[in-house]
Amino acid sequence: MTDLDFDERLLRILDHEITMRANARVTRRIREVDFGMRVAPEEFELREGRGVTRGTFHSLVSLGWLHNRHDLAITGPTGVGKSYLSVAVGVSAIRGGYLLRYYKLAKLLEKVAITRADGTYPQFAHTLAKTHLP
Questions:
Q1: pLDDT tens, 12-26?
Q2: pTM for this one?
Q3: Which of 11, 73, 93, 99 could in theory staple to 131 by disulfide, Cβ–Cβ 3.0 to 4.6 A?
């Protein structure tokens, strides 16, 4: 690095700083969402019983459906990996710069009921509205 001129060294230092901050932001957002498990899209296991093809999975984690403003509902019987898939898609969305919240339906309905009862529903609704993927 000593053989580089000042501008090139500065550019490399700034590029490194930008990359480090972006990585820290992604790590922080993943921690804040609290998925309850860690599944990076590249670690997702496409097993026979999941009913998700490699093409479908790549379509989901590439976020084309999100860019086109389509909704995503993941359904299936117990134990097939709905949460596992949603975490992988969520991590991909965070890496893509999206803000999101992660709730299983029962917990979301419980949260809505509690916030309506204690009068904090408007704040909760505002929090959800600020995210890209409530």
A1: 999 999 999 999 999
A2: 0.78
A3: 99
